Request: fold
Amino acid sequence: MNPPLRLAVVAAVDLAGPERSQIVRLCTDAFEVDYSPFLKSFGKCTHLLGFLGSELITHALWLRRPLSIAGTWVFNAAYIEAMATKSGYQGRGYGSAVMRRVHEEIRSYEIAALSTSVPEWYERLGWERWRGPRLILRGAEVIPTPDDVVMVYAPWGVLPDVNQTLAAEWRPLELW
Ligand SMILES: CC(C)(COP(=O)(O)OP(=O)(O)OC[C@H]1O[C@@H](n2cnc3c(N)ncnc32)[C@H](O)[C@@H]1OP(=O)(O)O)[C@@H](O)C(=O)NCCC(=O)NCCS
Reply:
């Protein structure tokens, strides 16, 4: 039987230095890129940490990111980042446990979104792929991002039509 997973919800400002280092290490290994600049770029966000003993083995975070759906801004949108489980611990249900807890924690948001290279993993958990055009807005510039897989989740069970246009403001590093 798998040992019990201890989940903790921590605002970015309240993260202890060693916790932050563990997150950077976990995500750097999982995404094969130095994750430190990404973590800094997210600013105000909330972390969901999954520990076995004192070891961080799984993690996700969310931040507020306004989304434009068919031209109407939804300001109360949660954007999920940095979902990762340590290699050697994957496939044991830990990542799913984190995402299910994230679903509970983001119930005050109208909609949630994320971008991923493993959409099938999120579909199992109730996420849907955005089928319509995905755009990034940078001032007057509109940047189509047809190659980015963006997924959405409705904390209250009511998703908008995913064939419409979805847009977000430009940001550095990863657009989605
Ligand atoms: C994707 C990731 C977060 C999943 O975490 P995890 O802790 O291994 O996930 P779980 O153990 O909860 O998932 C297990 C289930 O997902 C399924 N699964 C695993 N990878 C899958 C994939 N790529 N596509 C579809 N299903 C997948 C397993 O078959 C298993 O299903 P079951 O419960 O029906 O047997 C982890 O593999 C990871 O960190 N990958 C590298 C970083 C990454 O790609 N993160 C997500 C990008 S946003």
